[in-house]
Every structure is written in C-alpha cells, then in structure tokens.
Amino acid sequence: MKRYINILLLTLAIVVAACSGEEHKHAEGTETTYTCPMHPQIVQNEPGTCPICFMDLVPVSKGGDKDGELMLSDSQIALGNIKVKRVKYGDVNSNTILTGRLVLDETATEVISSRAAGRIDKLYLKETGQPVKQGQPLYQLYSEQLLTLQQEYLLALKQNQELGKENPRFASFLDAAKKKLLLYGLTEGQIRGLAKSGRTDARVTFVAPRSGIVTEVSAAEGQYVTEGSVLYKLSDLGSIWVEAELYPQEIAGIKTGDEVKVTVQGAADPVTANVTFLSPEFRAGSQVAVLRAELPNKQGNYMPGMQATITLPGKNSNTLTIPTDAVIRDNRKNHVWVQTGKNTFAARPVTLGEESAQNVAILSGIKENDKVVVSGAYLLYSEFVLKKGGDPVASHQH
C-alpha cells in the first residue's frame, strides 16, 4: 500500500511539472511588448513613453506568421487606399519630362529688305501677326534708281523693235535690261505692264515673294532707306520648333533623331516629334544645353510662345521597376509588401538598384508579375507593428 501511494505522488509531481512547463512556454509565446501608436518603429519590452512624441506606449502581443503576413478586411483596404500593381520590366528614367516652348522655325523665316535706295511712300502691312499670301503688295518705294532702270529697259525695247532684225545684239541689250529689273524685285507682270504702257514711274510697288506671317515690321511710311535695309520678316508656320533645356546628366540619354513626346499647352493629345538639334555647347553663363524638335503645323494650331512639355525616351533597359513610394526603408532592410492572396499581404526584403524620382530598379527579392503594394505600404507596415509588435521582415534576416 505504501508503495502504491509513492507511485501516485510521483505521477502527480510529473503532471504538475509538465503543466508548469506548458504554462511557461505559453507565457513565452504571448510575451507582451510596448509600442507607440504614432511611431510604430519604437518597440520596448516594458511600459514607458515614446522618445519622439512622449506618448504612453501601448501593449501589443508578439505573434503572427513568421513570414510577416497580414490580413485586412475589405473596409480596411478601402479606407487605407491600398492599391497594388504588377511588377514589370521597364526603365527607371522613362519619365524624364522637360519644360519647353514653341519658337519660330528659323529655316522658314525670310527677311524682306529694300532692293534699292529710296523713300517708303506706303506700307500695306503695318502690324505683326498678319497673314501674307505670295504676290500680295507689301510696300511702295519711291526710287530714282529704279526710274533710271525703267528708262533703260524702254530704250532697249525700242531699239530692239526698230533695229533688232538687222542687228541681233539689241535683243541681248533688252534681255540684260529686263534681268536688272527682275534682280531689283520687279515681277514679270510689272515688266510686261511697263512694256505695254511705255510709261515709267518712280513709285514701285513690291510684293511678297512667299506666303507667311508678318513677324517683324522694321520700317515706317516716309522713312528713307538704303539698299538692303530690313523692312519685314515673314515666317512660315507650316512647321514650328519646340525647344527645351537639358542639364548635363540628361544629355547622355538623348541623341539627334530620337523620338520624343510633345504635349502643347491647350492641345488635346501629345504628338510625336524627332529631335533635330542638340546644341554642342552650354548656353553662356549656364550649365544647360538646348534640345530642339520639329512639329508639323499645317492646320496652324500652334503659335510661337506656347508652353510645352517634352517626355524623353527611356534607355530600354530590362530591369524590374516599381514606383519609389512602394519601398519601405529602414535601418535594417528595405522591403515591399506583396499581395499573396485575397486581402493578404506579406513583406519581402528587396535589393534596390538605380533610382529616379518616380521609379526604382529591383535587383532581387521579387519577380515579374508579383502584385506589389504601391499605395498604402506604410499603413501596412504600421498595422503589422501595432497588431503583432514585430519586424515584418524579421524571418528573412539571417
């Protein structure tokens, strides 16, 4: 009997010890830590205040999945504006945008200058911005020099009519006199009218040699001008230039002939243009170079001075890229949140590569088509720390 009682007491001692061990393990598994609601990166093993905002720390229980998973409700996802995006290959610098403006195409600009010395008796166009058609009168010039050339032409014409059959050289004199008038700006029609009427006039009307827009008026009625004096500038707006400034770090990413997207302020859709010029030197007193592209403007929708934005092409590199805001950065390891199931997210440590203001290259940690949280990532991080009191990527650290 005594032996039986000893065995019973020994069994009870073993059971009590086992229960005590289970309670100890359970206590370890539910160890409580304390964190700051405003600064979840502050985690302590005992109560206290936040060293940043001095709020009282709140208790949280350590636990949860080792891989850092977190499940949210539909309302939490909506309120937190949690959005995901599939990881794709792309270029970090594909969104480089320059600010530019439209300027006149200098190759389609023509200077109208006085063909002879004289006085401006009449200006038919006195304002800039007016359209001009080829053959339209521009100005009337009083010139004794042109009067003399008309007289020479009429004399050569009369000599050729009377003596041309006997001596062919009078025909060459007439041709030379006609070419002089053409070189001084008279038209074929004006010369035919002079030959028909036989009357000279010191006042000669000059017409536009081409169509365009008056961009400069440099003379006034009654003004005396010399041969070669600038009177007008005409520009053809059938094509127009867009110019922008490049900084040194942007020059290497673009070359002549590359396609760029140009969005003109007030226009509905962007248009594609080719880079036609890159200045070989920086502008005086600055560290910027000039990029120029040509835009078609047959409908006349664009005007010089309008603002525009130019999107430079990327480098076509094959690297995984995600938005910069998707990366959670701390002093231990950079990580992102990946959707692993319905309303379920897991933290993944990543290695970062080249970075711009909008995108960052990912060298390791995630793969193509992974659904990465691009909006609300910091809210997920805070929610995880508040709920589970641990580091989301602790299980990934060795």
Given the structure, what is the number of helices? 7
CATH superfamily of the largest domain: RNA polymerase II/Efflux pump adaptor protein, barrel-sandwich hybrid domain
Show unreliable segments: 7-30, 62-66
Helix content: 10-25%
Distance linking N and C termini:
58 Å
Average pLDDT number: 81
Q: What is the CA-atom radius of gyration, in angstroms?
A: 42 Å
Largest sheet: number of strands, sense, barrel closure: 6 strands, antiparallel, barrel
Class by alpha and beta content: alpha+beta
Strand content: 25-35%
CATH class of the largest domain: Mainly Beta
Looking at the structure, the CATH topology of the largest domain is OB fold (Dihydrolipoamide Acetyltransferase, E2P)
Described by its quaternary structure, the protein is single chain
The total of beta strands comes to 26
Mind telling me which CATH architecture of the largest domain this is?
Beta Barrel
| Overall geometry | rod-shaped
Quickly count the domains. Answer: 5
Main sheet: which strands, in order across?
7-16-19-18-17-20
